[in-house]
C-alpha cells in the first residue's frame, strides 16, 4: 500500500467522519447547537476540499495508485452516507431522499467493481452528470448541516432540501446513465451470473 500526500488526505477524510458525527451529539454544556452546526459544516467542507485536493495532487505529483483510486470513492461515500443519516436523525431532511442517494452509491459502486473485473470499468467512469449530482449533494448537505441564516427571509433548511431534491433527481438520472453505459457493454456478451 503506497503512502503519499494524496492518500494521507483521503485517510484524513475517513478519520474526520467519527469526529464530524460526534460533534452533533455533544451536550450544550460543551458546544452550543449553533456552534455544533457551524463546526459540522466546516468539517464537511474540509472533507469536500480534501476530496478535490487529493485527486488534484495525485495527478499533479504523479502519485496516482490503484489503492488511492479505490480508497478515494470509499471515503467520499462514507462521509456522504454519514452526513445523510445524521441529517435524517436531526430531522433536517427526509429519510427517503437519503435512502435513494445511499442506495444509488452502493449500486453504482458495485456495478463499477463488477465492470472492473470484466475489464470494462471505463464504460462506467465518472461522467459529467455524476459531477453535477455530487455538486448538488455537497451544497445540500452543507446547507442542511449549517442550518443557520444566510439570506434574510430564506430558510437554509428549505433551500438545503431544494438542493437535496435536485440531488435526488440527478442521482436517479446518473444511475440510469451508468446502467445504460453498462448495458451497452453487456449487449452481445455472454455474462456469467
Description of the structure:
The protein has 193 residues and is mostly helical. The chain is globular. The chain has helices at 5-23, 33-60, 66-89, 95-117, 128-146, 156-186. It folds into 2 domains: 1-91; 93-192, no CATH class. Helices cover 75% and strands 0% of the residues. The chain is built from 6 helices and no strands.
Q: Descriptors for this entry?
A:
single chain; 193 residues; mainly alpha; globular; transmembrane helix; transferase; transmembrane; CDP-diacylglycerol--glycerol-3-phosphate 3-phosphatidyltransferase
Report mean pLDDT, rounded to a whole number: 89
Largest sheet: none
Distance between the termini: 31 Å
- The assigned structural class equals mainly alpha
Family: Belongs to the CDP-alcohol phosphatidyltransferase class-I family.
GO molecular function: CDP-diacylglycerol-glycerol-3-phosphate 3-phosphatidyltransferase activity
Main location: membrane
Keywords: Lipid biosynthesis, Lipid metabolism, Membrane, Phospholipid biosynthesis, Phospholipid metabolism, Transferase, Transmembrane, Transmembrane helix
Summary, kept brief:
The chain is mostly helical and 193 residues long.
Topology:
Blueprint lengths: L4 H19 L9 H28 L5 H24 L5 H23 L10 H19 L9 H31 L7
Helix pairs in contact: 1-2, 1-3, 2-3, 2-5, 3-4, 3-5, 4-6, 5-6
Amino acid at each position: 500500500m503506497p503512502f503519499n500526500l494524496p492518500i494521507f488526505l483521503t485517510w484524513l477524510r475517513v478519520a474526520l467522519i467519527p469526529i464530524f458525527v460526534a460533534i452533533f451529539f455533544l451536550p450544550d454544556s460543551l458546544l452550543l447547537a449553533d456552534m455544533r452546526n457551524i463546526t459540522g459544516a466546516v468539517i464537511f467542507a474540509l472533507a469536500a476540499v480534501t476530496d478535490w485536493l487529493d485527486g488534484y495532487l495525485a495527478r499533479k505529483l504523479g502519485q496516482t495508485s490503484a489503492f488511492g483510486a479505490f480508497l478515494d470513492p470509499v471515503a467520499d461515500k462514507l462521509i456522504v452516507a454519514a452526513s445523510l443519516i445524521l441529517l435524517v436523525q436531526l430531522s433536517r431532511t427526509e429519510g427517503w431522499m437519503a435512502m435513494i442517494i445511499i442506495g444509488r452509491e452502493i449500486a453504482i459502486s458495485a456495478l463499477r467493481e463488477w465492470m472492473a473485473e470484466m475489464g470494462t470499468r471505463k464504460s462506467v467512469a465518472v461522467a459529467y452528470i455524476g459531477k453535477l449530482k455530487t455538486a448538488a449533494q455537497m451544497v445540500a448537505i452543507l446547507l442542511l448541516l449549517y442550518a443557520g441564516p444566510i439570506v434574510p427571509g430564506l430558510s437554509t433548511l428549505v433551500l438545503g432540501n431544494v438542493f437535496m431534491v435536485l440531488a435526488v433527481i440527478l442521482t436517479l438520472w446518473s444511475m440510469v446513465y451508468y446502467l445504460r453505459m453498462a448495458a451497452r457493454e453487456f449487449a452481445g456478451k455472454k455474462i456469467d451470473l
